[in-house]
UniProtKB/TrEMBL annotation:
Keywords: Hydrolase. One of its GO terms (molecular function) is fructose-2,6-bisphosphate 2-phosphatase activity. Substrate binds at residues 10-17, 60. The active site is at residues 11, 88. It comes from the Bacteria. One of its GO terms (cellular component) is cytosol. The keyword Coiled coil does not apply. This is Phosphoglycerate mutase family protein. The record marks 175 as: Transition state stabilizer. GO terms for biological process: negative regulation of glycolytic process; regulation of pentose-phosphate shunt. The keyword Hydrolase applies.
Length: 234
């Protein structure tokens, strides 16, 4: 049986990412720059032998997957599924606001003077989730327990399915905070401040019912694809 490995990609840069607005369950399209970055990522991943592809049900994740598979040497042959469990956190009534507004409100709920002080005190994902749940006047945000169950089972089920079919590599497109949270669920030393860039690749190895982290937030595949694109044009 082949080793089971997930290549977890954060979607390409969107309009709200560029404008620094909160984007959880709400959705905006990839920008031209975002599309170009994922185009290069697809070229950088084009020779990786993927046995399955899975994205969240958000439009930005679906479009990212479409662009990656469009560059892959076997793109049309790779089975593709959509799983809403690996979508971003829901920020409820905070969705669409500027990032600075949300990260200004949450520290006050948690009795910190500002964001930097909150992070310096090693605030937990659970505390952040509880603060979002408390701040959400629309009552849409998930509790920490619901969020944990959703993210944990979503990624585990993907890996388990691949393993049962003989293992191999799976391409997964998800979201920044969700990926960072998953890394925390795997190893609680991983904290809120983890930097997961748009288009970066985080590789996870699944064995005996659990994940180990091979690499986090790798952007070298984008650079590889850019170099290949320039080579093809020369």
């Amino acid at each position: 049986m082949a080793k089971t490995e997930l290549y977890v990609v954060r979607h390409g840069k969107t309009m709200f990412n560029t404008l620094q607005r909160v984007q959880g369950w709400c959705d905006t399209p990839l920008t031209r720059t975002g599309e170009q970055g994922i185009h290069y990522l697809g070229l950088g991943l084009r020779d990786v032998d993927f046995v399955e592809a899975v994205s969240s049900d958000s439009g930005r994740a679906i479009e990212t997957m479409r662009l990656i598979l469009g560059e892959h040497v076997r793109g049309p042959e790779i089975p593709y599924h959509i799983d809403k469990r690996i979508r971003e956190w829901c920020f409820g009534s905070l969705e669409g606001a500027y990032d600075a507004e949300m990260w200004g409100v949450l520290p006050r709920i948690l009795d910190f003077p500002d964001y930097d002080e909150m992070i310096a005190n090693h605030v937990t994902f659970e505390a952040i989730a509880n603060a979002i749940y408390h701040a959400d006047t629309a009552n849409w945000a998930e509790t920490f327990d619901v969020l944990t169950e959703r993210v944990k089972t979503g990624f585990e089920d993907i890996a388990y399915r691949v393993e049962k079919k003989g293992g191999g590599n799976a391409l997964v497109v998800s979201h920044g905070l969700t990926i960072a949270f998953l890394l925390h669920l795997i190893n609680d030393e991983n904290n809120v401040r983890m930097d997961i860039e748009n288009g970066s690749v985080t590789r996870l190895i699944y064995e005996d019912g659990s994940f180990t982290i091979a690499e986090v937030g790798n952007t070298e595949y984008i650079k590889k694809g850019l170099a290949l694109s320039q080579e093809l044009l020369s």
